[in-house]
């Protein structure tokens, strides 16, 4: 395998450049000889935020998800209560085992896991996915397959590629259908006896499509490999969408052959950042992500990728779930999906714009309508919206504006249709190059 070099020159190179800036920092910041008072210190820290996106305005799509004042309050207090405990050793902090068991079991029930379904709390979607890939690799090894292949649709999150890179596994990417869901024929063409894991998303990030999970899981069963469903985005949305009467295709443990599912508490689960849940169909599968060693420091074991880790995010996730209850999530999901319906209608009502595919969850992508006489160019539109305070991530293949809607956007979303129409008019008038 060749070594990794971050690419530059691509549309994302500004991100890579920003991530690497501090490696060449001049002049080098110096820590003062004398410490500062608590007040001074916190003032200085707060002052750093001035250039950050004001997410509380509700005009940022994704990155920050907020379940409203009481969910925020209970999450913050719970995090403070567990700010100093270390999740590394649940023998010292048995309450952490209990909290983890409750979160994973609540989640397993939401995902319709059978008796015995169980899992672990991790630091985020990427770690949950890495753990699932690791468990699949170990399951493959047990079946005598070393360095077996991971097969993912091209819309699968980069975390799968990162896991394949870190765990030294070959990864094969397959195409999408016209609605941006995984093309099952393309997957079937590459899955074989050497495959250790097939992946589907519910929904995937770029266009919000839900992959054909029953067909992907059936492929896994045919070849005896693992099947992971990435519901980092949908894990706290689709179960409630179904409860409130929306139509949701089959995607969870009710589908035979699904072995593991990731669901992020720190996205639409409305916990503050640093927490996700990975659930397996059985304890045997779950145990494959655990690593241990007897060394001169005693006995060491970790069920996830990190060693010492804060208990605060897990405590916050527990508190937010406990506080909201199933009905609280029903309500939040109803609000968010209703907002999405009106936003998608507003986009499709503008000549030259369209929503890509047929998304039903809280994510979608806005693109120029190639069938229109004059498709709206997306990069200038992003700039025009940004000047009105709206922050979408920009995507390519095709050029589009990523839109993850969550409860925080409820504050501003009524203004979106008018601002979008005005931004399109400005772009058409040539104000953005
Ligand atoms: C579908 C999906 N999977 C996984 C992830 C990774 O989650 P995280 O950023 O918490 O690591 C994301 C993040 O947006 C996602 O949308």
Structural class: alpha/beta
Spatial separation of the terminal alpha carbons: 43 Å
| Order of adjacent strands in the largest pleated sheet | 1-7-6-5-4-2-3
Shape: globular
Largest sheet: 7 strands, mixed
Quick description:
This protein is α/β, with parallel strands linked by helices and 433 residues long. The protein has helices spanning 13-20, 38-47, 69-81, 94-110, 125-142, 158-166, 184-190, 213-223, 238-243, 283-287, 312-348, 378-387, 416-428, and strands at residues 118-122, 149-153, 171-174, 195-201, 226-230, 260-263, 276-280, 291-295, 298-302, 353-355, 363-368, 393-395, 400-404. It has two domains: 72-321, Type I PLP-dependent aspartate aminotransferase-like (Major domain) (Aspartate Aminotransferase, domain 2); 325-428, Aspartate Aminotransferase, domain 1.
Give an overview in words.
With 433 residues, the protein is an alpha/beta fold. 38% of the residues lie in helices and 14% in strands. It has 2 domains: 72-321, Aspartate Aminotransferase, domain 2; 325-428, Aspartate Aminotransferase, domain 1 (Alpha-Beta Complex). The protein has a 7-stranded mixed β-sheet, sandwiched between helices. A 4-stranded antiparallel β-sheet has the order 10-11-13-12. The two termini are 43 Å apart. The structure holds pyridoxal-5'-phosphate (PLP). The site of pyridoxal-5'-phosphate has 14 residues, from helix 5.
Key features of this structure:
single chain, 433 residues, alpha/beta, Aspartate Aminotransferase, domain 2, Aspartate Aminotransferase, domain 1, 7-stranded mixed beta sheet, 4-stranded antiparallel beta sheet, 13 helices, 38% helix, globular, binds pyridoxal-5'-phosphate
């Amino acid at each position: 395998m060749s070594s990794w070099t971050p690419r530059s020159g691509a549309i994302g190179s500004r991100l890579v450049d920003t991530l690497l800036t501090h490696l060449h920092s001049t002049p080098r910041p110096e820590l003062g000889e004398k410490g500062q008072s608590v007040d001074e210190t916190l003032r200085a820290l707060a002052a750093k935020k001035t250039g950050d996106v004001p997410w509380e305005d509700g005009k940022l799509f994704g990155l920050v998800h907020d379940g409203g004042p009481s969910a925020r309050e209970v999450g913050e207090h719970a995090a403070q209560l567990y700010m100093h405990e270390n999740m590394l050793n649940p023998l010292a902090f048995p309450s952490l085992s209990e909290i983890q068991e409750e979160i994973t079991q609540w989640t397993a029930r939401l995902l319709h896991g059978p008796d015995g379904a169980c899992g672990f709390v991790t630091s985020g979607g990427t770690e949950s996915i890495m753990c699932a890939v690791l468990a699949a690799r170990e399951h493959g090894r047990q079946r005598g397959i070393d360095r077996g292949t991971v097969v993912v649709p091209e819309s699968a999150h980069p975390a799968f590629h990162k896991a394949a890179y870190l765990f030294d596994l070959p990864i094969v990417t397959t195409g999408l259908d016209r609605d941006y869901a995984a093309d099952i024929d393309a997957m079937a063409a590459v899955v074989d006896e050497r495959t250790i894991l097939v992946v589907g998303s519910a929904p995937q990030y770029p266009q919000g499509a839900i992959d054909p999970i029953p067909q992907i899981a059936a492929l896994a069963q045919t070849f005896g490999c693992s099947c992971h469903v990435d519901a980092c985005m949908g894990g706290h949305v689709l179960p409630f969408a179904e409860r409130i009467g929306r139509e949701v295709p089959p995607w969870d443990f009710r589908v035979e052959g699904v072995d593991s599912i990731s669901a992020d508490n720190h996205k639409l689960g409305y916990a503050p950042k640093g927490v996700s849940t990975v659930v397996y169909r059985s304890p045997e599968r779950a145990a494959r992500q655990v690593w241990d060693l007897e060394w001169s420091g005693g006995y060491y074991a970790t069920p996830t990728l990190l060693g010492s880790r804060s208990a605060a995010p897990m405590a916050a996730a527990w508190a937010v779930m406990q506080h909201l209850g199933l009905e609280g999530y029903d309500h939040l999901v109803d609000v968010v999906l209703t907002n999405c319906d009106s936003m998608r209608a507003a986009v499709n009502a503008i000549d030259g714009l369209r929503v890509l595919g047929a998304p039903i969850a809280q994510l979608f992508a806005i693109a120029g309508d190639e069938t229109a006489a004059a498709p709206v160019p997306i990069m200038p539109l992003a700039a025009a919206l940004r000047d009105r305070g709206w922050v979408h991530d920009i995507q390519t293949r095709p050029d589009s504006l990523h839109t993850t809607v969550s409860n925080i956007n409820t504050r501003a979303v009524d203004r979106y249709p008018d601002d979008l129409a005005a931004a399109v008019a400005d772009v058409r008038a040539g104000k953005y190059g």
